[in-house]
Amino acid sequence: MIESLQHIPLADGTHGALSERFSDLAPPLTARQAAIESARCLYCYDAPCTRACPTGIDVASFIRNIHDGNLEGAAVGILKQNIFGGACARVCPTEILCEDACVRNDDAEGQPVKIGLLQRHALDHAHFDGHPFQRAPSTGKTIAVVGAGPAGLSCAHRLAMLGHDVVVFEAREKAGGLNEYGIAKYKLPGDFAQREVEFLLGVKGIEIRHGQALGSKLRLADLHARYDAVFLGIGLSASRQLGLTGEDAPGLMAAIDYIATLRQANDLAALPVPRRAIVIGAGNTAIDMAVQLKRLGAEEVTMVYRRGFDAMSATGHEIEIAKTNFVRIRTWAAPLEVLLDEGGRVRGMRFEETRLQDGRLVPTGSFIEIAADAVFKAIGQGMGVTALADPLARELERHGDKILVDDCLRTALPGVYAGGDCIAPGQDLTVQAVQHGKLAALAIHNDIQSKAEAAWPT
Ligand SMILES: Cc1cc2nc3c(=O)[nH]c(=O)nc-3n(C[C@H](O)[C@H](O)[C@H](O)COP(=O)(O)OP(=O)(O)OC[C@H]3O[C@@H](n4cnc5c(N)ncnc54)[C@H](O)[C@@H]3O)c2cc1C
Ligand code: SF4
Hints:
- 36% of the residues lie in helices and 19% in strands.
- The protein has helices spanning 14-21, 31-39, 48-52, 59-67, 71-81, 85-91, 98-101, 115-125, 150-161, 178-181, 192-201, 220-226, 255-264, 284-296, 316-324, 385-388, 391-395, 430-455; strands at residues 142-146, 165-170, 206-210, 229-232, 238-239, 252-254, 276-280, 300-304, 328-330, 333-340, 346-357, 360-371, 374-377, 381-382, 398-399, 402-404, 416-418, 423-424.
- It has a five-stranded parallel β-sheet, sandwiched between helices. A five-stranded parallel β-sheet has the order 6-13-7-8-9.
- The longest helix is centred in the C-terminal third of the chain and has 26 residues, at 430-455.
- The radius of gyration is 23 Å and the shape is globular.
- It binds flavin-adenine dinucleotide and iron/sulfur cluster (SF4).
- Flavin-adenine dinucleotide binds at residues 91-92, 146-152, 169-172, 177-178, 182-183, 187, 212-215, 233-235, 237, 256, 259, 284-285, 288, 384, 386-387, 420-422, 428-431, 433.
């Protein structure tokens, strides 16, 4: 599909600068900066930053360790709660989580402690001989995990620590989920995602089998029968449709598909880059798509959203990134028609302007047209069609596309648990997926133990 995009040669000199444009968005702290920043922490009792962290990292304690020069201690404290602490230090929207809760926002400086950058500093510079966590004695149980994204691998790692063996079934060639295939390249550059997966697997007891898609040859009913428990961490891999005629035309594609190709490209200069592009949506995926297109050399990128800035799911920080990269943002316009040229290729889109009336979004009867060589959909994702082809997975109780679970991440089918983006409710953040995986592993462990205790003769 990506081949359908018109390849506009980049301006002279742009190619050489491409790798720089996709290097770290937030450069790391130097040792001196980390020392100064860690000294700003007040080591609050019952710290609000820890309460705001979905994985419950003891922020005050790891920052104190950094201040005392104990980077290994700081790193272990982080990883104990969040085995993807390295990725989360780079991708977490800290401005709405821990840093938003930091008490230093309210003092004279009015600036939170840079928790994300300090977390990164600890994990980048700590040195371990082998894996920092030991496995408990073997339980003799084997658990199946479907999906090797943050949710699945976090679950697998915790289960392995608790003494279980784990087999991870993954549809794609590489593990890591959206850390490998989705997150903006300038947030997780190079091979960071793969290095983090390798580190996680260092705990031992986890086998990953690639090319295994639930709903294809892999059946939930078989996994349920063969393993002691099953965890589903399959994310949301299908892009939502606009529901317009011309949606399959060359030049119109899902933002997540383009981003996956971009993240896997060895040579960014060889990617087809439209000169003018429209990105439909207002979440972080839309921002990532628009910003990456600009950084690749697209001249004109317009994000279009049917509501106003206040309703956007992208954070204020992300919207600022879009603006500083000269992405145009057009609000109050709903997609109406894909405009095609004589050859059937995308030449733009027609939108109808919208407004709120009694709290409801209504069309105004005014129309706008935006010319573009390509249109990218970033209006949310749903469960992949392959997974939905599995008879038992399809039967799981769902809210819309998402699987319903209880507080312990149990689905309605005993022995089957789920977490990450594929469940409701959820925030669709990496850190949330990691926490789901961790909590599900603890629930699986407890449920297996309770079952074993109930089976003992009295
Ligand atoms: C473009 C984009 C940018 C994002 N940026 C950020 C960000 O900056 N910060 C942030 O916190 N969050 C971000 N997110 C959200 C974050 O990536 C997700 O919340 C997180 O990856 C969810 O983890 P997961 O394990 O549930 O799912 P995923 O990461 O999607 O992993 C699911 C895994 O399951 C596999 N799978 C799918 N179907 C099957 C099947 N049928 N059988 C077997 N395996 C299967 C997939 O191949 C994948 O490996 C972004 C998301 C997108 C799409
Ligand atoms: S709220 Fe801020 S000052 Fe208090 S412990 Fe957390 S990071 Fe430190």
